[in-house]
């Protein structure tokens, strides 16, 4: 039986205005917190704060695009009346535990479960800081009569993030050092510290307008945490054959423990499911597909740049996906693709993908295609991310060497038989295609940072909304204003997508043709090309004007109700 990380909360789900409410109707500190089992039962509820399956796979920024756009991409976010992520029930749950756990006489158990609670408090506050910047720091539950705490102002981001790091250091020092797929351990805490340090260090570096100090301190923390995990944990990059290893890692019913540090489990036996297969193969969830710039970013199989090839802009599908980084054909349908356990080759289905680049990452066997009936485990932390964090933090810190790349990015490249990043060559000849996208970069390590960003984007696509966080911390909101594109077609006509001699797609004007076995799309309504009947790339949501306000949109607004309830809170700039 699979042990689930989808625990039922013990009872606390409070909103911010209830931050002072005691959960006495559910748990009495006089009768609970007496044994290690009590501590275990209570802390099980903390796992509900981790991403759901949809939170892992449902990326829709500029890696994966859909037939609709988030408000963040349209520039149409407004200040909400309430909600909007300004919710503190999770923190109330954690702090209540920390204030009562010492009632258990088993002090070793208390220390261990307090460390677990502090891991989740760090996780909570990291999310709040990413969203709002300065936030009030609460280290304990608030009494109903404590007006000073209930109406306190936001604490400086620098203070909050130092407290987050202190919580993580405590968790690392006391949590179990065994490797467990479904339980937070020392290695999970190190992986989170690696993530937090990289995010905060680069945010501070690329956002001087916030006047945040000590960027290098956080980069060093990320490096140290990554290095500790890399040297001592025993995790490795999962390897099989280059043509299947990456895909198998994500399509496995059970998370692969070689590489996955923490996963959310799903089980047919216990009837706990998610919706991934249905999401990628129907029109019901926006028809997700890889965006053209990401497809262009995959290197050739020999490590050379696809975008250095003359005429790459007008290559059609079957040609453009040949001899590329194998992760491309393990992320989207390419010629020769078959479902797990089947032998019939499948081409992209335009009824399920708005760009033509149909996703197969996480897609499992056909028996799980039914609505909300998929059981592939979802990785929340995996070793490859730690390797990416290590390489990037070292490069941003200015201490990266080729030897560092050889113990980090080389491992993810080796999985699929790709040559490693060559630091000297990258810095001597930065990729102009990548440089055009990342406008804030400068300095002697520009070339290698571009390559690390390429590797990160490709390796971590469709996982945990990393791409949104990356764009925000790198101060590259302008990427979200670009027109999103898909496959190239020279105009109306019949197309053999996999070059097997059979027409797979007809793009037509006028009267709809009948072509046996082919997908038929009307130009101008069912498919849009940049230059109409003269061809071009598929244009996605070209009628929607995307906006990103550089002076406002790197943070979210605080709800108006919260500002009225607590007049010491101040709104984020320009909201």
Annotation keywords:
575 residues, mainly alpha, single chain, 6% strand, 21 helices, two-stranded antiparallel sheet, disordered N terminus, globular, 9 strands, 3-stranded mixed β-sheet
In short:
The chain is mainly alpha-helical and 575 residues long. The chain has helices at 36-44, 53-57, 71-74, 89-100, 107-132, 147-150, 157-174, 186-206, 215-232, 245-251, 276-281, 292-297, 317-320, 383-397, 402-406, 409-415, 423-428, 432-437, 446-459, 466-473, 560-565; strands spanning 64-65, 260-264, 289-290, 378-382, 484-489, 493-495, 505-508, 519-522, 536-540.
Q: Helix segment count?
A: 21
* Shape estimate: globular
> Helix content range of the residues, please?
25-40%
Structural class of the secondary structure composition? Answer: mainly alpha
Pattern of helices and strands:
HHEHHHHHHHHEHEHHEHHHHHHHEEEEEH
Lateral arrangement of strands in the main beta sheet: 6-7-8
How would you state the average pLDDT, rounded? 94
Largest sheet, in brief, is: 3 strands, mixed
DSSP E strands, number = 9
In percent, how much strand structure appears in the residues?
A: 5-15%
**How far is it from the N-terminal to the C-terminal residue, by CA?**
49 Å
Q: Whole-number radius of gyration?
A: 25 Å
Q: Can you tell me the residue ranges where pLDDT is under 50 for at least 5 consecutive residues? A: 1-25
């Amino acid at each position: 039986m699979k042990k689930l990380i989808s625990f039922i909360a013990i009872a606390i789900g409070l909103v911010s205005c209830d931050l002072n409410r005691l959960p006495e109707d559910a748990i009495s500190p006089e009768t609970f917190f007496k044994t290690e089992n009590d501590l275990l039962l209570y802390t099980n509820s903390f796992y509900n704060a981790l991403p759901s399956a949809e939170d892992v796979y449902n990326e829709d920024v500029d890696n994966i695009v859909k037939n609709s756009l988030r408000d963040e991409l349209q520039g149409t976010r407004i200040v909400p009346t309430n909600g909007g992520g300004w919710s503190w029930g999770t923190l109330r749950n954690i702090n209540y535990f920390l204030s009562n756990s010492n009632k258990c006489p088993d002090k070793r158990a208390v220390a261990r479960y307090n460390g677990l609670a502090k891991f989740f408090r760090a996780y909570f506050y990291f999310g709040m800081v990413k969203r709002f910047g300065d936030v009030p720091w609460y280290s304990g539950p608030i009494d109903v009569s404590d007006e000073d705490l209930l109406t306190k102002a936001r604490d400086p981001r620098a203070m909050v993030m130092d407290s987050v790091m202190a919580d993580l250091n405590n968790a690392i020092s006391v949590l179990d050092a065994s490797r467990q797929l479904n339980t937070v351990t020392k290695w999970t805490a190190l992986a989170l510290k690696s993530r937090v340090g990289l995010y905060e260090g680069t945010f501070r570096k690329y956002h001087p307008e916030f006047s945040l100090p000590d960027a290098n301190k956080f980069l060093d923390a990320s490096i140290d945490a990554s290095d500790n995990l890399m040297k001592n944990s025993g995790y490795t990059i999962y390897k099989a054959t280059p043509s299947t290893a990456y895909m198998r890692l994500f399509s496995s019913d059970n998370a692969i423990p070689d590489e996955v540090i923490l996963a959310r489990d799903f089980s047919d036996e216990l009837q706990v499911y998610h919706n991934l297969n249905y999401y990628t193969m129907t029109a019901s969830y926006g028809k997700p597909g890889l965006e053209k710039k990401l497809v262009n970013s995959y290197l050739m199989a020999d490590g050379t740049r696809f975008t250095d090839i003359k005429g790459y802009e007008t290559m059609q599908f079957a040609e453009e996906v040949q001899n590329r980084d194998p992760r491309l054909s393990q992320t989207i349908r390419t010629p020769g693709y078959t479902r797990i356990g089947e032998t019939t080759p499948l081409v992209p289905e335009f009824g399920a993908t708005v760009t033509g680049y149909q996703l197969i990452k996480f897609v499992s066997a056909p028996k799980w295609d039914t609505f909300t009936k998929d059981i592939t485990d979802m990785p929340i932390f995996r070793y490859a991310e730690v390797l990416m964090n290590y390489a990037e933090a070292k490069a941003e810190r200015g201490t990266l060497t080729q030897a560092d790349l050889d113990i980090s990015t080389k491992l993810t490249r080796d999985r699929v038989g790709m040559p490693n990043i060559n630091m000297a060559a990258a810095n001597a000849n930065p990729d102009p295609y990548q440089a055009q996208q990342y406008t804030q970069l400068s300095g002697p390590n520009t070339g290698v940072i571009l390559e690390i960003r390429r590797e990160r984007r490709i390796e971590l696509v469709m996982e945990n909304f990393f791409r949104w966080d990356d764009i925000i911390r790198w101060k590259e909101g302008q990427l979200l204003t670009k027109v999103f594109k898909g496959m190239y077609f020279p105009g109306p006509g019949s197309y053999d997508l996999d070059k097997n001699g059979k027409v797979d797609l007809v793009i037509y004007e006028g009267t709809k043709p009948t072509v046996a076995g082919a997908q038929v799309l009307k130009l101008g309504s069912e498919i849009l090309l940049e230059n109409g009947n003269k061809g071009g790339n598929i244009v996605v949501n070209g009628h929607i004007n995307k906006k990103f306000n550089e002076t406002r949109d790197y943070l979210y607004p605080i709800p108006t109700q919260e500002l009225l309830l607590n007049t010491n809170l101040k709104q984020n700039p320009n909201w």
